[in-house]
Amino acid sequence: MKAREFERKFDEGKEDITKYLDVANARRSGQEQKRVNVDFPVWMIRLLDKEARRLGVPRQSIIKVWVAERLEKTS
Question: Where are the domains of the chain?
């Protein structure tokens, strides 16, 4: 299918276009993951874990959100 036809189908909204997408290999630009190791003092880990339990989320989620918030403020 040509891009123009795909765009037309999308814009019309009459047909489910997901059958034309390869979602198994879809990637969000700029959202690729890269693993890093960071060492934290034990007291920080304890406080992070306490906050994670309170919110019902993994420790890693809190770290990601807090780092992202800080980076947005500095941009």
Answer: 3-27+35-74
Question: Is this model's pTM higher than 0.85 or not?
Answer: no
59 Cβ contact list (under 8 Å, min separation 6) = 45, 48, 49, 52
Report the distance separating Cα 45 and Cα 51, nearest Å: 10
DSSP 30: T
Give whole-number Cα distances, 9 to 17, 20, 26, 52, in Å.
Answer: 7, 11, 19, 44
Rounded distance between C-alpha atoms, residue 37 and residue 25, angstroms: 27
For the domain spanning 3-27+35-74, the CATH number is 1.10.1220
Q: What is the dihedral of CA 43, 45, 46, 48, to 10 degrees?
A: 120
Tens digits of residue pLDDT in 8-28: 988 998 888 888 888 888 777
